Predict the structure.
Amino acid sequence: MPSQNNPLFLLAILALTTTMLLGCGSDQPDPSANNKPVDREKRNKERAQAAFVKRLAQDIADYNRIKHRGDGSAPFLLTVYDLRIEEWLEAAQQGRPEGQLLIADCMLQGIGGEKQPAEAERLLRLAANQRFSPAQSLLGLYYYFGWGGKNDPAEAVRWLKLAAEQGNTESQYYLGHCYAKGEGIAKDLKAAVRWYRLAAAEGSALAQFELAACYAQGNGVAQDLEEAVRLHQSAADKGLAMAIYELGVAHAKGLGVAQDTNKAFKFYLLAADKDIVSAQLRLGDCYALGLGTERNMKEAAHWYRIVADSCSALGQLKLAECYSAGYGVEKDLAQAAKLYRLAADQGFPPAQYMMADLLSTGRGVEKNQAEAARQYLQAASQNYAPAQYRLGNCYEYGQGVAKDMTEAARWYRLAAEQNYSSAQYKLASCYANGTGVPHDRDEAIHLYRLAADQGHSVAKKVLAEMLGNKE
């Protein structure tokens, strides 16, 4: 028996099959009968390909819509990955930019496997070179954010501009951001506003948010607080949490809208539930001060704790103040000291100042004047006036440092220049007595008057005495 791999055997089988298909007794094959299966197969393939392309187009539409909302692409990719990955791979293998983009984005985010930034870059370039604007945009972001260790603002702007000029809203937003910050291109606030406006008109919540900030601050456009509120509202309606928070700020301060602390509180609550730390902090303040809601220190401490747990130095400071005074929690100076220390270790001047205050008095921690002076110095070096004043005290009285009136006067002056009344009074005393600085009665009177005008009672008394004695 001949081998089935023998070419002749295969030809014989093919001939037999052809004869059976043509039918017995037929002298000539019917061309139309032979072509019908071929035509049908071709039409089926065309229909299948059209449906395939249509599904890809829908994927891209959904992908863009989710990104347009400001949520990034991950929610879409994670939701449909298992259902659509095979067709995306097939599309990429066919050289279709839709598949190349979607696979590349999955690789960048590690969806479906390990992150592969180099391969993602290669696929994005293939798609971008086909003038596919979503791929050009993502490639621009690849260079802008330095994914894969390739931070290149100028290259980012090049790709973002190509996509933006095709009407890609994501690229228009980020190109506006590059112009606003001067990243990869010369800073140009008017150009930033132009690109933000184009993206905002297409419904980009992020662009509406940034354009609102331009109107609020008068950057690249005439200041218009009402327009800022309108844009923030439009972005908030799309669920952008930071826009909701800014609406709270606007209502709290009466910026572009009538001041309304009740509405501000509601906006803060909505934004806080979306994990906006600034809103959570403001919400704590609302409960602490009774703004837009009843005063409730337990609720205030609750929100301050949430903020503190996010490693916010300001949240740690606020919660420490609660423990220090027993507001909404049981008074606990040791716990207050721990929180002050956490915030101080982040270089936060008010926390460094409060930590120094505890160390200087031994409240909640072991008394340590030298460490207190060091903490005052750290805060004072950041131009924090209360710490500059306290550091002046340390040098004047020799607390934790060697006594040095010249150094004391120097720190008093730095705080006095920030209109800190206690420092103005102390520096005035230095001039009046000639300690640490040359004696200068006129300068002393000037400084006493500055302090007195701010309500410093001792300065008022001394000033009255000096003016009564004109010798």
In short: The first helix runs from residue 7 to 22.
